[in-house]
Fold:
Amino acid sequence: MWQSVQISLPPWIEDVAPPELIVDTLEERMRLVVQLANRNVEAETGGPFGAAIFETESGRLIAPGVNRVVPSNIPTAHAEVMAISIAGQMTGSFTLAAEGMPAAELVTSSEPCSMCFGAIPWSGVRKLVSGATAEDAEAIGFDEGPKPENWIQCLEERGIEVVAGFLAEEAGAALRAYGEGGYEVYNG
Amino acid sequence: MWQSVQISLPPWIEDVAPPELIVDTLEERMRLVVQLANRNVEAETGGPFGAAIFETESGRLIAPGVNRVVPSNIPTAHAEVMAISIAGQMTGSFTLAAEGMPAAELVTSSEPCSMCFGAIPWSGVRKLVSGATAEDAEAIGFDEGPKPENWIQCLEERGIEVVAGFLAEEAGAALRAYGEGGYEVYNG
Structure:
């Protein structure tokens, strides 16, 4: 019998990012997703990547995500795909751009890989904010995949605002600590 | 409390694509995924897209997938992502290219969108075979997303063989029938 796709968030997630959390500023939102990435490594619950979707104006957390590739055996369980998928389930809408829904943004600790980049237009978020750069992730052995060279422009042409490299130094430091920790680096 | 990501295959899937099914030729593999797409529409269990991962040499079905975006409220639940995710769970490996695993191929009823394209390198499949073209999908209102123009070359440079437009006429006919049926066309 075929299994259903089932990917859980780690049990500690609600300590760091509980439902109904309000996070006011973009700096605090980025620091939260970097904290998710770090905690995911410390707890040995996945790779060094965190993401979250917020209502842009109110700062309400719609869904968090962390990388769950190795614990779930599912290569698509990147932090951004987790946040996007859980946001859909939590809101009961396959797009966050449905009529009457407040504008939402995806905040992610690292520049999205090719898959997560490609998922962003389907999510309905109106804004992407990323921290560490692709070079930071690649420097410790992660592969960002084949994104279009003009990926920022591709999103902006679809009405999605992009802020890349936001607090990149802090976000990159988390990745470098992971690289120096001798942890497993898989594809993605 | 945050939900887990949970996406089921439709209940009829094992009638068409049971575990341990062996499908010998590439033509039969493509016809199977087109049948998955058609059945998904008839049963009103998702969009007109089917996919499956096979062991290339033996023809053993590793995992099927169909589009489940609307029933699950999850925008990432495309047929290819479903097949890749279920293959990971069923094999207990986050990559089908792990040592000792037989070469696997992804067969999909339509050219992959930007997200599914980006997921293919992480899946570990060594070959992609797609049926209907992006133009077929776009002609009935689906959006393929921002893939690199040289997307086939991008995969081939990573050692993934690509056969695009295989039985495109048959696979495209299924999409056109969907377009003419007045069904919902969402983003993706």
Notes: Helices of chain A lie at 13-16, 26-42, 69-72, 79-91, 114-123, 134-139, 151-156, 168-180. The radius of gyration of chain A is 15 Å. The first strand of chain A starts at residue 5 and ends at 7.
